[in-house]
Amino acid sequence: MPKKPLKILIAAAEVAPFAKTGGLADVAGSLPKALAKMGHDVRIVMPKYKQIMEGDYLVDYPVEMDHHVESGILKKTRLYSGTTEIPVYLIDNHQYFYRDGIYCFPDEAERFNFFNKAILGMLPRIGWQPHLIHCNDWQSALVPLILRTKHADDPYYQTMGTLLTIHNLQYQGLFPRQTLTLLGLGDEYFTPERLEFYGQINFMKAGIVYADLISTVSKQYALEIQTSEYGERLDGLLRKRAQDLYGIVNGIDYEEYNPETDKHIYQNYSLETLDRKKENKLRLQQDMGLPPGPAPLLGMVSRLVDQKGIDLISGIFEQLMDLGIQLVLLGSGDDHYQKLFAELKMKHHNQVAIYLGFNPDLAQKIYAGADMFLMPSRFEPCGLSQLISLRYGTVPIVREVGGLADTIENYDEVKGKGNGFSFKPYETGALIDTVRRAVALYQNQPNQWRQLMVNAMKCDFSWNKSAQEYVMLYEKAIHQNLATLYRMKEA
Ligand code: ADP
């Protein structure tokens, strides 16, 4: 039991296993389990999308929008950490959330404005007063703003600290100026110090300005986003808040992602039974229509967007094929990348297998079956795929940026140290040289390769350490808010 168990509300637009499009869902679904294990009272809140099963009905309550009142319908489901139950509150409103898909609707501002207001509105109704609200990305970044404006004088809300975690600064929630009305705010909020951002309203910025503390998902990315190269035009503001900006690397759920027990993969294995991993490769090759055999098998599980360095891969494609490798790709995203890979598959059907779509079961089979995992990202806040690969003894080949730089150490053949391969410049030459190096080691030095797999599997990217760092940050945010409150009361 911790000295003082905290009451923490985690707010996110996606939480695995209920709704997932990327890494945020994994984090929002697994960090709470680690916090609960430490003895904290942690609860989660997310929208009730159409795809989520009905939970237990709790209460209906009014949520004030600009010129009308919407109803929030609160339901509850749960996650488990061992035998500990973690309540997951689902905020339902048919008009906003009963749709096919999660994001990318024309009324995003209204949907997530509703979600943020409904989060604060539900608290008195469930009779639970969190010490801290942990907001994640732009979809829940209005909570600190609403707390410090609408509820600024309300003793019930005043003591709640806030942390905003940025999982990807590229997605900020930008909307026209008129959105201020929707938020119930006057023109005095349309200033560079508050919500104005190049003539628009920026939800992520609202969180960065009003949260007690800000964090992002690796130490390297926390530094990078303070530069103009990676700062997505928010670097100036982030530098201004540098004292309050932290980096905590994500963990992954070591119970879910465990090659010894994973039900999705063909053959379970562990460090002690590493030879059994081969069976996963053979079966994956068969299932994906590739000739089974010893060719180095590169895996990719990725959103197909510029961020992930897909243009670098397409730039070296023929050279990759000349190396005699096989590539299994699972991904979905931009049309032009989908088309590109479909064409490459037609041309090299004996070496390339592709599944376009979202398929968590196949993802696990790739993590377990591939020899190497390719992730040459242009930028990468943390990256979970390389962490999952490590856990399955699949050697990551990554660009040294953001969380990839923090988690992957370039292999040193002389010392036998390192857990993957990495390169720095965002250039095709650097990528192909690195793949060549990896393939040569794989083909010519089986003992060294085995050492590398062992090193990868021995890494610990479970939540243990990072969850403790989050608790320290929660405590700091709570204290910082209380100190400001006392100062204001004394003044
Ligand atoms: P990002 O959040 O930028 O997409 P991360 O590496 O942080 O990238 O997390 C991606 C998560 O989503 C991983 O768990 C990965 O396995 C999963 N994922 C990505 N694309 C797919 C897909 N097409 N099918 C199944 N899972 C996917």
Structural class: alpha/beta
CATH architectural category of the largest domain: 3-Layer(aba) Sandwich
| pLDDT averaged residue by residue | 97
User: CATH superfamily assignment of the largest domain?
Assistant: Glycogen Phosphorylase B
Q: What bound compounds does this protein have?
A: adenosine-5'-diphosphate
Domain count: the total is 2
Proportion in helices: 25-40%
- Quickly count the helices: 19
**Model regions low in confidence, pLDDT < 50 over at least 5 residues:** none
Q: How far do the termini sit from each other?
A: 38 Å
| Number of extended strands | 18
Question: What's the CATH topology name of the largest domain?
Answer: Rossmann fold
Radius of gyration: 23 Å
Biggest sheet features: 9 strands, mixed
Overall, the morphology is globular
What is the CATH class of the largest domain? Answer: Alpha Beta
